[in-house]
Amino acid sequence: MKTTVLASALALALSGSALAAQVPDDVTLAENQTLIWGVAGEVPTLDPTKSSDTASNKIISDLFEGLMVRNPNGDVVPGLAKDWEVSEDGLTYTFHLRKAKWSDGEPITADDVVYTLQRVVDPVTGAPYAWYLGTANIQNAKAITDGEKSAEQLGVKAIDDHTVEFTLERRTPYFPNMLTHSSTYPVPQHALEAFGDSWTRPDNMVNSGAYNLTNWVINERIDLARNPLYWNNDETVIDKTSYVASSDVNAEYNRYRTGEIDITSSFPLEAFDQIKKERPNELITMPSLATYYYLFNTEKAPFDDVRVRKALSYAIDRNIITDIILGQGQLPAYSATPPAINHFEPPKLEWAEMSQDERYQKAKALLAEAGYTQDNPLEFELVYNTMESHKKLALAVTSMWKRHLPVNVNLANQEWKTFLQKVLQKDFDVARDGWIGDYNEASTFLSYFSSDGMNKTSWGNEDYDKALDQALTVAEPEKRKAYYQEAERIFARDMPAIPLYFYTRSVIKSPKVGGYNTDNPNKLRYTRNLYITKN
Description:
single chain; 19 strands; six-stranded mixed beta sheet
């Protein structure tokens, strides 16, 4: 027996109204509906299956749509699916697709969904989010990514052209939430077979979202225009949108001030107070589902020694980072999961309860136990991607380390694509990282460090994995909290990464851009929900 899930947000979505720009009656729209976004650095890919960075995902979310999406408030609502059913045992989800079309006029079918997800888990694809379907507990996903079964054995099948059935290995109460991630967005099988790796070029791309790709100039800009075949095009307002790339926050801010950019991806940290004073109605600071880390490569000595990892973590004064270095409302992080996550409360951790002086003393003792002294200092490289804010933070942290510990640190900054490849290949000692939640549930942060997760640290712990597994047996979100807290305690005990701070999301937005929700902690803002006012 199956029961149809019809939440209030879902019921609203069935008419399309939850997925469209909500223009108040007293607002006059501008004749020119063009929106320009700033984006941090060059976008590595526009293939949803191969994306793993926030810049790519932002643009992909305008080009493609998932079975499930988020409305402006951050609630999960149907996208390409119009509704779904779940079995009483929670192991079978059946999604019914809208009668939507690809941008070339071909129908979007259940076969496209099956093809996409098989492509994600197939090791031949090399998808960075292949692990994600395993954490979603789709039947055989992990066995396929491990090379033990074929992609065709994935627990996803087309019942008919507009019905997709997912079979899960265990109850996953937040499964629809996970389908909002870009790695699960259906891609057009016929276009990939026709154009191969070049299918994402402007002349070849076939997509499902509100906008089509019209131009892509590497390291410069990406231009999109309304997709007239998008299923909810009648409710979309913005006609054209562009993404201007910059790894220099000062250059991006200058472009904003001259009107070349309407919404920034970032801005100079040192200008925050000035911007707040001069542009109070344009500076927006929002809650965020994101944590900033330094990752350890635990396969490499000396970072296979937990004493070394803890020493470096304890010797950082996070209050200086959040209050002085950053100063935008960020919170010190002593755990993996940010406080903005629904149904979560961090456990009391011994090291988090210490004074900073106590942490300094503990760090010195741990490093001495590991054999590092002024005569035999710890030497390593800290690598980060090119951006002034990352550099500023790395200099501050390095200064703290050198002041309190016998260490020699070499700072190395690299362009985004090179940095991403280096970290994914685990060719690093310590590396800057940040994790933005793929969905609003603690497992999105904790599963990142599981043995089957993206986990660039190479760390693994059976008890940690077990705690996450046990959380899945509990349907009620509040009751899952205890298992997540146990995972956090194990993380703190082994310290595979240094949590530094929990993000806030700050941007500068032109007053003429309407529809931008400032309470939603999820980072993505879909262009289709926005509009340009006349004044």
